[in-house]
Amino acid sequence: MSTSDQPAIAEPHLIRPRLHGLLDDGVQRAVTLIRAGPGWGKTTLAAAWAARRPQPVAWLTLRRWHSTVPGFCSGVAAALQAAFPPASVPGRFGHVSDENGLRRLCGGFGQPVPLVLDDMQAIDGSPAMRVLAALIRRQPAGLRFVLLSRTEPDLPLHVPRSAGGLFPLSAADLRFDDRESAALVTLLRPGAVTAATGVVTGPAEGWPVGLRLAALTHGSDPGEEIGDYLTREVIGGQSAAVRRFLMRTSIVDEVPPELADVLAGGTGSRRVLTLLEGRTGLVTGSRYHGQLRAELRRMLDREAPDEVAGLHRRAARWYAGARMIPEAMRHAADGGDWDYLSRLVVVLGPQLSLSPQRDTFAMMLRRIPPELLPTTAEFVVCAVMLAVFAGDIRAVPALIDRARSLLAGRPPVERQAVGIVVDLIEVCTVLRVTGDMPAMVAAAGRILDQLRAEPRTLPIAPHVRAVAKINKGVALLWTLQLEDARQHLSAGLAEARDLGMPITAITAESHLALIAYFRGSLREAERRACEAYAQAEALDVTGSIQVTAAYLALALVEVERDRHVEAQVLLRNAQRSVADPPEATLAVVSVLVRAHLALALGDVAAVAAALRQAREDAGPSLRAPLLSRWLNAVQCEIDLANGEPARVVERLGEVAGPSPAEQVLLGRAHLALGHGTDDLHQVLTGNDPFAAVTAGIAIALAAEARNDSARGEAVRGTAAAARAVALADQEGIIRPFRVLGAGHLRKPEPDSILAEPLTEREIEVLQFLPSVLTASEIAVELAVSVNTIKAHLRSIYRKLGAARRREAVTRANNLNLL
């Protein structure tokens, strides 16, 4: 029940039970203080709460005339008289004009009466405040004070909530949450749809008056009305110095005190921001409410347009010093400081081109006036990066030459800093695309040597070092230096992760997956490829070139596990992620994966066609010894399939330092020519699991074919088969057993057969589990619903006794179901 001069409530009005409950709790204490800036709904909240209470609530809206002692005392007495007519409290009322009379009046109500004093800021610093302070100190039993103020009142309110004294509410409590915001907009605009509601509630950020004005101006721009309110009620109430501070600092999204000092041209910004947070509720820490910031920017453009560019330039330099690179670049562009932006691109920007902020970086570069791009080495670097982003790699070599020519005559320090960045771009684009791997090893090595000699040449030297190491590792891989490649990629991967370069880390992880495959460790190749894919998925870059090598490595693993559909899916993913123009090495590997699929299916003609295409795609610029050897190995597979082992011996007989895979091919050719198995036994005991499996199968089959009567040879054949089976189970290798006709070597033991066998459809679904395909993607491949796949998965897990996908794969491998 409300009384006295309580203001009317704007209708329609949203009842907020959450806050009403807090006020009910508050009036059990001596003082409830609701302190917030304009527009936070202090008065509306208290009035709605008072109107719904069954007990009387006295209300006094304070004005200037209440600042005197008589004015204040008579005003409070009138409010109490309105709540309790004189007849209901005999002898209590009469003319009250001083503190003693007011104290007598408040001393003996039958029950505590909430007294709402609204607009407390109207009597700040006045004699009336001394009277109120005295009342609060004495805490009369008949009164509970509810104080509404825009500022912190000068009252004895230091008693903590837990002591039963003060109950404070602030703008943080009054802020509308998402549910309340949507409910208010729907109430004000009946029939509003969810999407439209979000457009209104988002900019208001829970500020009640902002929500109301935005909702009520549906169909027109609410900015003018909100701006008028902010100017009148919030900004207009500040001193000229604070208004100037607000305008100058509004050019940034967030304004930490150190940056505010730079923009405002002074010190003490922390104190000002703290003061504004308390006074307005529209400043939170270092962030301005979006609608306040928008109005401040309009004021700055209107009142001090000549200052805007300079403020952006100050901000750019502060952000650069704080290594907040995207913000520094954006403000340099907003300030039209193109020279400074180009320098930022060189000394701080390269890491952004390989980061999740790549699109933001590209957008900044596109703002540079095109006529500036050919004029300095720094601007040409910007042009190079724009060409890379546009996929125009063919334009890069000429631009790099232009940048190097413009560096002539520059001071050595500048020449070296820009030159390293130019060299790095050449390594990452031109050399990787053309496939000149020896040149790439040398160029990346020179960058690392320069960084070791002059570690302070670039502010982002650690980032450049990580990228150079990873690219050198990639090049070492294709030049057959697998161990050196692994070391460089592993070191670069660790550095990229430490430096927060996740996309660069994906490149390293993907190529480490390929190395694991080349070393015959399918499990490690799968683990690394899946890790690279998981990182790419988290960053929403699964279609990027950085993850291509992971797709290809995983496709090769799936081929050896005889899961052709999964391999084809992964190959398609790899082909979709290849850049235009593609990296020469990965383009050839993509065709070689197709050749391996054809080999697994026994389609020799398709293998030969893929091999021809791979040689054509390699082109004259590709210099990658590993790929040359790989192409030769695939040709050897064709020769063996065509019954021409002598050609294999001829091809591989003079190869220096043959790999385990090449030794197996040579050993199989020797067996076909009636020679011994010494080469194969050497591989069988080596460190390449996949090659050892194939060697073991070949030895065992040779022993069976000869029907050796010599016990030693028979034992060697049995031992070779046992090792091949053990390694195959460990790595999940299946294809060689089928292709070489050795399926009988890994028959399951009777006690390892499932009590309840899988259905034919479940076995089909099971083949997808080791892949990275989701249930939805498996459903697409099998042309069924995702719910059907999920039902099959539940049945598969139950029959295999597995709780999760990985356990099911392990169990299925042990049962030779995969």
UniProtKB/TrEMBL annotation:
Q: Which SUPFAM superfamilies match?
A: C-terminal effector domain of the bipartite response regulators
What Pfam families does the record tag this protein with? Answer: GerE, WHD_MalT
Under SMART domains, the record lists: HTH_LUXR
Q: Which InterPro entries match?
A: Sig_transdc_resp-reg_C-effctor, TPR-like_helical_dom_sf, Tscrpt_reg_LuxR_C, WH-like_DNA-bd_sf, WHD_MalT
Domain HTH luxR-type, chain residue ranges per copy:
751-816
GO molecular function term, any single one: DNA binding
> Which PROSITE patterns does the UniProt entry name for this protein?
HTH_LUXR_2
Keyword annotations: DNA-binding, Transcription, Transcription regulation
> Biological process (GO) annotations?
regulation of DNA-templated transcription
Name of the molecule in the record:
LuxR family maltose regulon positive regulatory protein
Protein source organism: Actinoplanes lutulentus
